[in-house]
Amino acid sequence: MPPDDQTSLFAEEPPPPSREYVFAERRPTTNSASPDGLRRAGQPLAARMRPRRLSEVVGQEHILKPGSLLPRLVAQNRFGSLLFYGPPGSGKTSIAEAIAHETKSRFVRVNAVMSNVAELREILAAARRLPEAGTILFIDELHRFNKSQQDLLLPDVEEGTVRLIGATTHNPGFYVNPPLLSRSHLFRLEPLPPAAITGVLRAALVDVERGLGARGVTADDKILADLAVLCDGDLRRALNALEVLVLGLPERAVVTTAELEVFARERRIRYDADEDEHYDTISAFIKSCRGGDPDAAMYWLAKMLAGGEDPRFIARRLVILASEDVGLADPQALPLAVAAHHACDFIGLPEAELTLAHATLYIATAPKSNSATIALGAAHRALKELPVQTIPAALRSKSGQANKRIGQGKDYAYSHDFAENVSGQDYLEKPLTLYTPKTSGAEVAIAERLARWRALKMKLTAKKA
Which of 53, 62, 103, 112 is nearest to 80 (CA)? Predict the structure, then answer.
């Protein structure tokens, strides 16, 4: 293809051949003789065991149960562009292939990491030449495409030349261009529950055609369930792990706990710094502390630490929590959280984990009050919505000869000259009620004190009258 300005932004080598599958004439086949090349004996078990129909997809009943939107659209072949957003191994690619199979569509698959503008132009041009084939363009890791690449898809998506199915592990709201997002149905996939993964592992173990049944290796349900738990909702990872276990054993052997312990030792928590997992986990941590659940707070803390989160980031959130959610109900929470933040800086991991655990448990179990947050918000609203009040002359600075000559600060009543430091003086021209103490923890005493001060002020005001 002739070079153009847009292509020059990307790799200029000839585009790699796109993977194109035509499902219209698909027939049941064995692994080694699949005419469409989708499932070969040398493929990983996870690829061989892919569902062939939507009804075979497990663990995503919230979008695939009979009568729901996606199955209805596919059954009528009236869907437009689709976006599947979910964690690895949740079935995004499997659903895309099943849709193409059920609608007998021409299926072109590209990976956003390896693709470029030249390849996209070639695919879109071919789709325009074959409108009757009904091209589905599946883009894996769509979030890897930049704005220019995504914009290139818009005209053909708009015209219906191709039906885009995009798969992403990242929040589309942040990584997919708004025009493309608005033209697509968005479906969120969840991590697969262990029971669903266990069922697929059991089927793969006995399936002779596509699975591992020819080896005759067996495993009891407890072993398969434990393997499912270790794989954290990732079916691809679970199937690949099972394949490694089975191929490492002689035929007709039994998978035991000893083999499974190898994977248990190497378990890695799925946690992407600065991505969805980062924001979702810290959100769960904050809400657990705020909600007074120390067990949940410790669990999310441990997950962040296991995932490699910066301990100083966690400590900063604890400092914010101490003022935002504990506040005056326990005034010791803030200095303790600040001390934990400093300790993380000069101790470092792994010992700083203890400091974070200490501060987390203190804040999670402390009485809660957001009265400071509410009072600050009320003060900002008063400044924004009401006339800005003039500072009373008695409260103004009287430093300097000029201020003294014009009488600033002249009538100020020194609080310490009065009982309980209550002079009865007003500190705003038009009094406002911005702070209302909560009835929690140490703030109960503050509420009682303020009520007593109000009574004293009323008496002093009455005497002046």
Answer: 103
Tokens of 296: 């949940």
pTM for the whole thing?
A: 0.64
CA separation for the pair 137, 22 (Å, rounded):
12
37: confidence class by pLDDT, cuts 50, 70, 90: very low
Q: Was domain 7-188 assigned CATH 2.60.40.380?
A: no
Q: Judging by beta carbons within 10 Å of its beta carbon (0-12, 13-18, 19+), is residue 214 exposed, middle or buried? A: exposed
Fold of 194-265: Helicase, Ruva Protein; domain 3 (1.10.8)
The CATH number that domain 276-365 falls under is 1.20.272.10
Model confidence pLDDT, tens digit, residues 109-134 = 888 888 888 888 888 888 888 887 78
* CA distance readout (Å), 27 to 33, 35, 79, 106: 11, 9, 24, 15
Is 138's pLDDT higher than 90? yes
Residues of the chain with CATH 1.10.8.60: 194-265
Structure tokens at 405: 């000559």
User: How large is the average pLDDT for residues 407-435?
Assistant: 77
In the chain, CATH 3.40.50.300 covers 7-188
